[in-house]
Design goal:
290 residues; alpha/beta; Arc Repressor Mutant, subunit A; D-Maltodextrin-Binding Protein, domain 2; 3 domains; 5-stranded mixed beta sheet; 4-stranded antiparallel beta sheet; 9 helices; rod-shaped; LysR_subst-bd; transcription regulation; WH_DNA-bd_sf; DNA-binding transcription factor activity
Length: 290
């Protein structure tokens, strides 16, 4: 069966009408080029070139193969390049799982990092509840996951990215609304808006911070779940601990936190080597990159 190596050698000779120049063009020995063309002629059962001591000429069969061979090589090169670009994550689609605690600002950062220098690359986000992170990675439903916590699973690898600072969101008429800054201890006795119940990793992380500061709160679970949307702060008369850069909400005020706390950000993937897209994300969103 003829192969691309033989076809590429023939096209080079047919275009140069000289075996020496064709060999130089292909960075091969002249003997190797001659052998490839001869093999191609044998396998096709047709003489493609007329050779004399002075020149090389195309036969009718050779002229026909040159025309279609150029197209075949161009199509093959294009196909190979497309696959390489997908493999290098400069085209195709990168599927990213995001836990509900990962907001719009982090997603935008991921898109900016991945598409920098790769305008043909598409990014698709998929909401992933914490319990579904490992199953979705194992099944290949997503390429990697951005989350605030990581499951304990031997077949899932993870690394820390740049953590996210936290700010306080309170109703416009709240006692802390006009404060230049607030401390976690100031939230003692408050109603805390959460997007998942106690016993889930993200909510338990917030409760751990508050307990360490000596603050006890009443949890109020949001009616709109799946992502940290702040729109119910005013409606429910609750406060919320949000990642800096989260969307604002009508009737609510952002207050800086004086405490040195930040939300961890992790990227998780199936155990093994990192893909080109994952390597680019880690380089662009690591603590060192910030």
């Amino acid at each position: 069966m003829p192969d691309l190596r033989q076809l590429r050698a023939f096209v080079a000779v047919a275009e140069e009408l000289n075996f020496t120049r064709a060999a130089e063009r292909l960075h091969l020995a002249q003997q190797a080029v001659s052998k490839s063309v001869a093999q191609l002629e044998r396998e096709l059962g047709a003489e493609l070139l007329q050779r004399t001591t002075r020149d090389v000429r195309l036969t009718q069969a050779g002229a026909a193969l040159l025309e279609s061979g150029r197209e075949a090589l161009a199509a093959a090169d294009s196909a190979f390049e497309s696959v390489q670009r997908i493999g290098q994550a400069v085209t195709g689609t990168v599927r990213i799982g995001v836990s509900p605690a990962v907001g719009v600002a982090i997603r935008k950062q991921a898109v900016d990092v991945l598409r920098a220098g790769a305008p043909e690359l598409s990014v698709s986000f998929h909401e992933v509840r914490p319990a579904a992170v490992a199953p979705m990675l194992r099944s290949g439903s997503v390429d990697f996951v951005l989350a605030r916590t990581a499951p304990s699973a031997p077949d899932i690898d993870s690394t820390a990215l740049r953590p996210t600072p936290v700010e306080l969101l309170v109703p416009a008429g709240h006692r802390l609304a006009g404060a230049s800054a607030a401390r976690l201890a100031d939230l003692d006795g408050e109603r805390l808006l959460t997007w998942s119940p106690a016993g889930t990793p993200f909510t338990d992380l917030l409760l751990t911070w508050l307990a360490a500061a000596g603050a006890q709160v009443e949890l109020v679970e949001a009616h709109v779940t799946g992502a940290p949307y702040p729109y119910e702060v005013s409606e429910l008369g609750a406060v919320a601990l949000m990642a800096v850069g989260s969307p604002a909400a009508d009737g609510a005020v952002k207050v800086p936190l004086a405490d040195d706390v930040s939300l961890p950000l992790l990227v998780l993937w199936p155990a093994g080597p990192s893909s080109p897209a994952l390597r680019r994300l880690r380089a662009g969103m690591s603590s060192a990159a910030g």
